[in-house]
Write the structure tokens for this entry.
Amino acid sequence: MQTTEERQRNPWLHRFHIDGPLLFALVCLSLTSLFVVYSASGEDLAMMERQAMRIGLSYLAMLVVAQIPSLTVVRWSAPMYLLGLLLLVAVLVMGEIGKGAQRWLDIGIMTIQPSELMKLAVPMMMAWFIAKQGMPPTFSRILGGLLLITAPTLLIAKQPDLGTSLLIACSGIFVLFLSGLSWRLVAVSVGALSAFAPVLWMFLMHDYQRQRVLTFLNPERDPLGSGYHIIQSKIAIGSGGIEGKGWLQGTQSQLEFLPERHTDFIFAVFSEEFGLMGVSLLLLLYGFVIFRGMIIANRAQDTYGKLLAGSLTLTFFVYVFVNIGMVSGLLPVVGVPLPLISYGGTSMVTLMAGFGLLMAIATHRRLVMRKE
Amino acid sequence: MKRRVTIRDHSAEAGLFSRRMLFCAIFVLLAMLGLLANMYHLQVQEHQALQTRSNDNRIKLLPLAPNRGLIYDRNGVLLAENMPVYSLEIVPEEIADMSVLLNDLKPLLSLDEETLNQFREQLKRQRRFAHVTLVDEMNEQQLNIFAANQHRFPGVSIEARLVRHYPYGELFTHALGYVAKINRRDVERLREEEKLANYAATRTIGKLGVERFYEDKLHGEVGYQRVEVNNRGRVIRTVDIEPPKPGQDIYLEIDSRLQRKATELLKGRRGSIIMMDARNGGILTMVSAPSYDPNWFVNGISYKHYQQLLNSSDSPLLNRSTQGGYPPASTVKPMLAILGLEDEIITPTTRIWDPGWFEIKGAKRRYRDWLAWGHGWVNVSKAIIVSCDTFFYDLALKLGIDRISEFMNKFGFGDYTGIDIAEETDAVMPSRGWKRARFNLPWYAGETVSVGIGQSYWTATPMQLTVATGILATGGSHFVPRLLHSSRQQGERVLAAHEEFPPIVLKNPSNWDVVHDAMVEVNNGAEGGARRAFKDTPYISAGKTGTAQVRSLGENEEYNAEEIDERYRDNAMYVGYAPADTPEVVIAIALENTLGGGGSVAAPVARQMLDAYFDRENQPTPSEIDDADD
């Protein structure tokens, strides 16, 4: 029914397996990105051009992925996951040669970031793993799923890249939750996780990660050091007021008081220049993208599609929530960019490829459904 | 089997998924509303506070120093000016290679290694966008050379500032005082008086004399330049400027012509000359010798100079006019005579016999008159004219110390004159209470006898003598001596208020005339102590000489100025006023350790000062004064 309607309205979009409303919202976000990056970079045209190139590249990725039939996606799930895991181990081994954070893998002709691959591979693998058995998952499936989540999460956390490992863990857990994990188990897990927090604090967290949490709890503790980011960010946001200081007029960002203003803290720049009104519109756009994703998930033909679409959508929400929460002082500083707006390449391509998967799920319909 | 299960479960799975999705949708909605609520909190509720912090981040106030008011003499001669001083400033951020630059500048401006090292030290401490001073005060040659080569040195600039300068050097030091760098004690005081903010850009402050006393008038009000800076302190733009309000220009009563004359007369001597307007207390001349160059202090005095001033046995730092406590000697005899007449201890015709000495009945000690063989029969007028000691020994003893002390207080002795500089001592008008407090000893009658000729513990500053003589000249008016003539406020000259103490009112005002006539005779009569000094003056003046012993002599010891140590020689004093019938000016002279007394040394100095005052031809015409006002 829906497909015929859409085909009648937008035959062109349908031919390329594009979801119109979703595309519209994404384009709005990308245009916003260009304007804000131009302002945040101190009116650097070259930076804006690079960002435009990346946006173009990511839309291309979305378009390509959207053409892949659902069955092919299902078939790729397990191999992609295994490849990703292998690369993560490779990164870790190479990383011990170099010092500090090692996220990139040089494979001769280009460098790749396996953790980006896993952002898609983990939800795909989980959806495949659960859908194979059916909903709700049996206890052994749950344990197996947790294992599938834990392995890449730990490998990425070890790099160390707390933000990404968190997002990847979320994407897997969302599949479990959406597949009908019993509420009792959910409650037990939450309880166990809170119990685990002190262990995490004592043994697993790096010093700088602990500092971040302490600073989050009280930014004024070290206003010129680790608290500086969050204090300046809140000043930027608050001083924007309702109407904002105007595009290119944000003093916090233009006078460089705001650190990392074109990457992780770009939301503060946006809030300072466009105020509460702009922020409301932006949240509305993000909300639209998320709810559109949820509708696609709900309408998906099969369990695999539902679980994958649901997980990708919710992970996108986590992106938005964690970044805005961090920049506005609700959450500790975790290196998560504002999706589709922040300056930066790889994560944007991955995100748009994810939206490509959503669109593939929304538009590639199998014969099975029609029969019904 | 598997296929059947899948088909059968599909709708159930879809239902379960939809319920989970709905839960997530509600959760997402609430979370987004939570984010929005937090944004509302920051951008609406906290907006004011965070807006303020945002402005604090970027807006910096750069204080601008006001120009210090100028100081003129009564005729508009500039006594304290502000001179531009040029410094060479470097902005490190704009310099590509600092060591190359310094290597180029060093031979060009003939800089020494010490200057360069100081600069390198400063460089480490300063922020990159701030100016760093390479040369604090450039000389003429350096200025010219750099100006010609400036195009080769971007990022290096000449900055001008104003520095106080006293063109007449030591001529006015003890009246004008000087400004010097603000030190920690000044900062403390300014903070207590809540004036510190006004000095945000000021380098120097009045430390002495008029510069100190009228600091508030002269300083002006600080201005501000509001600038926007980035996170590294670099100035991006000027938001606005609130210009500083310059200090008031002030005019002193001092007449620089008379001041120069007095300085010449005191050359090579230690002492003080004061000339005051008898009609209002304005100080026309106030010189204390030796003096020193106040310009030494403006930019910080060198150790060598300061030691030189501090250790000099001539104490050039002492303002003898207001801080020098001299025994007033015979100069106070007219005031004592007034008291004797007023208390009717004596009448104008009361006579005593002066054999050349005085003794208290029953005591052995003889108090000698300066004239060894005595003045014979002496009444009060003659006692003043010939400065008879015996008459005043007798009078003082009859008056008693309590009465003398009380009445001389009314003439201002033992108290501050209230002149408008802070450097003043109240000297000593002895009394029983004073001696008890000072030495814990009772008062002896013999000491009262010495007080009769202005000796004993009695000391007075030349300024106190001037004021007391002014009271004689005006028949009771007691003015507060004052250096300030007027100040210019918003382009208008505002005259300083005359202040007066309660006048001395006599029961019998004709007593003033008795003393006045005698003082005219001192200068003009056949027996007058200052008659030689005032021979053939074109004006009639009144006066009184004094010769003060610095060291008391034994009863039978002879005083021979040529033989004793120079520092033990007598001080020569003189007080007077002119013209005698309508007094315009009062004069007081104090000369330390002179060969000769008040009549032979101090009176001729007074004569020359009065001659200069009455030399109408050399006085500035009113038109010159008007020009100076513009």
